[in-house]
Amino acid sequence: MKQTITFLLMCLVAITMSAVENLAVKYKVSNRDTDSGKSYSRDMTLVASPNKSLYFNTMSLYVDSCESTPEGRASLREIQMKAWRVVQPDGTVTYDGRKLGLAPEKNEFLYVAKDNADSNMTVYDYKAGGLHKYTEPYGEMEWEIVADSTKSILGYDCIHAVTDYHGRQWRAWFAPDIPVQDGPWKLHGLPGVILAADGGDGFIIEATEVGMTSQPVPEVYSINNYESGERCKILADHEHYINNLESIMAAQGIKINGDGTPANLPKYDRQRQAWETDY
Asked: Rounded to an integer, what distance in angstroms lies between the CA atom of residue 149 and that of residue 94?
């Protein structure tokens, strides 16, 4: 089965077109919000060539492309302000938070860039109040095929495989008919693209579209804005940040509750909220 996927937001990004078609997969990704612990889902995309891939949110990529230049930033702000503004009867202008979503905005910060030539991946994300990145090798993910266990996903016969990776056991289903050894998030290394995966505790990834795109693999914008670090330290710092957010804000003169009473924010539940629990 071959479908052509048109990614509207990707077409708006000023990147050079390529004559070579790359694999493009859209996924629905579900897990728990790192602040509230409530389950939620969002759309992510994988674009993969034989040499590299990028896993990203299309809206975030578009917003980051705009933010990367002064002209693009100004144009984005104009679009947002026009969508969110409310003109009162007396002529004054206010901005209505309920209108968020009517203009492009960035709600997902994660990018995973895989480099097959160097056999490593670089993760870009917003953690502990700032932008961070880290690189890790492919060799940390080893799969075991589950015999006689298959299911159909989007018309592809998929084979079941499992791996223990950074504190979670991942159950994945890959399509041998699409011989791309890649997948959503950090998942990779099977003889076919991964179309579904379950890491337990509500961490579920499901492909919703599979096809080809003439777009090259996108690049992450403004990479110099990300501070390099080590994976376990970044994740540990993020958990500490969430668990101490009220005191951190208080030290900056910010009160979560305007009257100064304790907010009693819920503690970070690593098992239910973290993609990786081994830090």
From this structure: 57
